[in-house]
Task: structure prediction
Amino acid sequence: MSEPAPLRLFVAVAPPARARADLAAALEPLRQAPGAPRWGDPARWHLTLLFLGAVPSALLPGLTGAVTDAVAPTPPATLRLAGAGRFGSRRRPQVCWAGVDGDVAVLTALAARLAAAARGLGLPVEDRPFRPHLTLGRWHPRRPADGDLPDRLAGYRGPDWPLAEVTLVRSSAGRHEVLSSVARRTPSARS
Result:
């Protein structure tokens, strides 16, 4: 009997609907701009904390537990989508992204704990600095591209929102399926 196919996974934070709607409204005037990227669906916008790629399905229970343990010590945090930029050069842009403001150090520490947890399970993790961002769209390499387009969102500042939940997501055939969701624990009130 053959092994089940590996799962393509990532760990993410999804901004709440009101934050995505606010950014989508700010982005609307750019959607049809010449040289614009292929824009992503706002319903799928997220901040990737850790990209795992192909994970053997047998590791899923352990990974789910490791994600829960990594999220547990996360202190309260307030985030907001702010500004924009690109990956790639101005002449050959690849990704248009929105930045993140607020308690970014909390998000960065969480991403580091998630990476350590994945390494502890023997999963390969990219060894590069965490750069919190939300991918808005991608430019096709053989089409005209306006690498200055993100500059038009430089002054954008979205609404604040609390870091409330982290999800383990499966990506398959361009679709995302949340496999588990971990709420950030809030301290219980003592009487």
The two ends are 57 Å apart (CA to CA). The helical segments are 17-27, 60-71, 104-120. The beta strands are 7-13, 38-39, 47-55, 78-88, 93-102, 134-138, 161-162, 165-172, 175-183. The first strand starts at residue 7 and ends at 13.
